[in-house]
Amino acid sequence: MWSKSFLLFFICNITFILASLCLDRPDPLRLDYLERVSCPMVKENKTYSNSRRNTNMFNLTFTCGITDISLCEKVKNAFESAEQILSDAIMFNQFVNINATFTNICVAYGACTSISSGIETQVIGGAGPSRVMMLKDDDGVYRFYPQSLVKQLGNKVHPKYSDYDINAIFNSEGVSYWFKGDGNIKSDQIDLEMVILHELVHGLGFLTSLNDYMHDIPQGLTPYVVGIINNSGSNYHFIEATFDKYMSVVPTGQNVSDIIKQMDVFNNIQYSNQDNFTTTFLSSPQYNLATDLFSKATKSNSLTILSGDDTIFLETSLTPFNSKSSISHFSSKKYTNTSDFLMRFSIERGKTLQQYVKMGGNYANGPIGPKLRAFLKSLGYTILDSTSNAQTSISTTISIIELIIWCMLTISLTNIITSCFIEIDIFLYEKNNAFKILKLGSHLIGYSA
What we know:
Layout: E1 9-11, E2 14-16, E3 22-24, E4 35-37, E5 41-43, E6 58-64, H1 69-89, E7 90-91, E8 96-103, H2 105-109, E9 113-116, E10 119-129, E11 131-136, E12 142-146, H3 147-150, E13 157-159, E14 166-171, E15 177-178, E16 190-191, H4 192-203, E17 224-230, E18 233-241, E19 247-249, H5 256-263, H6 274-282, H7 286-297, E20 303-307, E21 310-313, H8 332-335, H9 353-359, H10 370-379, E22 382-383, H11 400-413, E23 425-428, E24 446-448
Parallel strand pairs: 6-8, 8-14, 12-18, 15-16
Antiparallel strand pairs: 1-2, 3-4, 3-11, 5-13, 7-22, 9-10, 10-14, 10-24, 11-12, 17-18, 17-23, 19-20, 20-21
Helix pairs in contact: 1-4, 5-7
Keywords: Signal
Protein name: Sequence orphan
Signal peptide: 1-19
């Protein structure tokens, strides 16, 4: 699907290099907070492949913060069941590592509810990629990819992986869960396995970067804003997520990636601080593109993702815009009671995962519906079904020059050699005029019910 290299800027005697930019999300309930981490390129001699079916390709590290051992075991089993569903749908070449916690979120975070489109909802939990990596796509655009996907691509040279691919946390208090073996589900219960399955799909990369990173109350949408500090100031780049590559505007069919390219005209301009960049952007014609995207995100049937011949309508009916629910989900109006029910932003209580499959027409491949399967395939995962057993092959070409430059950068950053290179800091744009290294504005993936 795409070949990868690492972004390198270099100018004769003064060298600026951005190589394998990695961002960690340490808190699955605060996915707006990202930290830049060291992820030097590493080389593996091992070749990974998986021709086995019926193998759970997830490694689960599970922490239970309550004393009810029986409930802890049920939750762990629900994780493993969701993992098996995904393992039966996707040909994973490497194990996906999950760091999961089941605990009293009310105590840990000081709140049990959140507001979604003016409605107070119970916090069930969330999950997301523990690390994303900026890589070059086949169209020459740099995008952020989830580590879980990068691991499947078979690249022997890659940025260093985090210990975990997905972080997850779920609430042990204030929610009545149903588990397999419990008998009939009650009207106020939620099938936790279904919620876990939904959130793990987010962790595999089903999420957008579009958000308002410049206002407390959203008014315009941009992708991540990445700043590079050098000796004469800072310049700024808009960097999208891999999800956004496939997004289009209805009815024009314009690709959102093309809109982002039109926004990204500030990267060669030096700014003394982020406030100067903000002022410039908000008063520029490019900001009209951001406000237009925002209007699309709050108008039904205005944004889609394309996957081959499949068109998937995204959730754009919520007013006001909600960064946890808008865009990064299938349209509830379109896909309720269909085989692609799973990735809607909310679920109805009192129904099990298998009941949802039945209401959707008993799709042969279970809860991972046909449109979701097609999109995961577009992202780069190999989908196991009757029509395609071929593994998507994506190669990495890293030149000797790039490796040498990376080694030189590593040396320069440890102050062993300082005469040839200028050390740079990478940061992300932060709201509220409070500069802090590597903090992003609100983004993404809660799951409410």
